[in-house]
Amino acid sequence: VIAATRRLPADGLDPRIKSLNYLNPILARMEATQAGADEAVLLNSQGRVAEGSAENLFIVRDGLLATPRPVDGALEGITRGVILALAAELNIPVREAPLTPYDLYTADECFLTGTGAELIPVREVDGRPLRHCPGPAFSTLANAFHQRVEQESNSEEQKT
């Protein structure tokens, strides 16, 4: 669900300062729960998509992977960075761009990423079902992500 609670402006509170940055996402998650949804999408003060309540957001339309820009309120998360790198390695066209609610409603695919969440496909936004859940881009990226995590975990184990 797209929450009425907005993302705090990055110029007012840097999104990288997590210790002071949880109130609005908590309120947005409460809105989602009251609406019967699993997650909330926060918009910035200009009405552009910023992020989920605790995750970054990606959409796919016509084979292009897109995610909100940090200037629009997206946290430059670790998992987000890995997905951007994997997309480049897999030759999946990707761009950081301003996204609107309409972009979410008309996406072929949508998914969330986060350190704890990893990758989560989105089935619907505001009651509007998306074409694919999980979609082919999500499946490709999720497989590549899990392979990368396993490789790096094995590499770390060999060092100890």
Kindly, what is the distance between the CA atoms of the first and last residues, rounded to a whole number of angstroms?
44 Å
Q: Report the structural category.
A: alpha+beta
**How many discrete domains?**
1
- CATH H-level homologous superfamily name: D-amino Acid Aminotransferase, subunit A, domain 2
Q: What is the CATH first-level class name?
A: Alpha Beta
CATH topology call? D-amino Acid Aminotransferase, Chain A, domain 2
Radius of gyration: 16 Å
Kindly report the average pLDDT value: 92
- Lateral strand order in the biggest sheet: 6-5-4-7-8
Can you tell me the residue ranges where pLDDT is under 50 for at least 5 consecutive residues? none
Task: Please sum up the structure shown.
The protein has four helices and ten strands, in the order βαββββαβαββββα. The protein is an alpha+beta fold and 160 residues long.
Task: Explain the overall architecture.
The chain has 160 residues and is of the alpha+beta class. The chain has a single domain (2-159), classed as D-amino Acid Aminotransferase, subunit A, domain 2 (D-amino Acid Aminotransferase, Chain A, domain 2, Alpha-Beta Barrel), CATH 3.20.10.10. Helices cover 33% and strands 24% of the residues. The protein has 4 helices and 10 strands; from the N terminus they run E-H-E-E-E-E-H-E-H-E-E-E-E-H. A 5-stranded mixed β-sheet has the order 6-5-4-7-8, covered by helices on one side. The protein has a 3-stranded mixed β-sheet with strand order 1-2-3, with helices on one face. The longest helix has 24 residues, at 136-159. The mean pLDDT is 92.
